[in-house]
Amino acid sequence: SNNTFVRPLYAGNIMATVESLDSVILLTVRSTSFDHAEDGGSASIEEISAEIPQSDSSFISIQESQSERPDLTTAERIISGGRG
Fold first, then answer.
1. What is the mean pLDDT of residues 45-50?
2. 5 lies in a domain?
3. CA distances in angstroms from 67 to 32, 48, 61, 71, listed in the order given
4. Residue 43, domain member (yes or no)
5. What is the pLDDT of residues 51-78, one digit of tens each?
6. pTM
7. Mind spelling out the 3-state secondary structure of 51-77?
């Protein structure tokens, strides 16, 4: 049905089929779930206009964590070592 989705659980180790009975459904997309596009494509870009309805929600802020450690999500290779 239009309200049934397959989504990853446990860091993507299993896939679950879930059904939502809510009238409003929020969609999120994991950009790392798609293969990289090849260079030199010829897709067209179309500008569209859309009406955004009034909402009680508002953007407050983005709070990004700061770390001296490298961002592993962008690493080409990760090498790990340890005991045992």
1. 90
2. yes
3. 21, 39, 19, 9
4. no
5. 888 888 888 888 888 888 878 888 888 8
6. 0.38
7. CCCCCCCCCCCCCCCCCCCCCHHHCCC
How many domains is the chain built from?
1
User: How many angstroms separate the CA atoms of 71 and 60, rounded?
Assistant: 25
Q: What totals of helices (H) and strands (E) does the chain contain, helices first?
A: 0, 2
Residue 52 has phi, psi (to 5 degrees) of -100, 120
- Supply 84's token pair: 């045992």
CA dihedral 10, 74, 60, 11 (to 10 degrees): 0
Quickly tell me which residue has 């993507």 as its tokens: 12
pLDDT value at residue 18: 92
Extract the tokens encoding 36: 């990289």
Residue 16 forms part of a structural domain: yes
